[in-house]
Design goal:
Order of helices and strands: EEHE
Strand order of the largest sheet: 2-1-3
CATH class: Alpha Beta
Radius of gyration: 11 Å
Number of strands: 3
Strand content: 35-45%
Helix content: 10-25%
């Protein structure tokens, strides 16, 4: 069962220094279980921007129902 999340995040890669704060909806293949799973969201966002996971810092997230 997939789950959608509204996210606010910052890209820390040097290419995005001028405008590095974003927000949007992502979909994971399964719901997150704990706060430590935020790395899954950061990984999805990083792939979408063709960056490393360490280049994305999740500021906030909430599950959409």
């Amino acid at each position: 069962m997939s789950a959608k999340y509204y996210t606010q995040f910052v890209l820390t890669d040097a290419s995005y220094r001028g405008g590095n704060e974003f927000s949007g909806v992502i979909e994971l293949s399964q719901p997150m279980d704990s706060e430590t799973d935020r790395r899954d969201i950061e990984a999805v966002l990083a792939r979408n921007f063709d960056l490393n996971r360490n280049d994305v810092r999740l500021v906030s997230w909430s599950r959409l129902h």
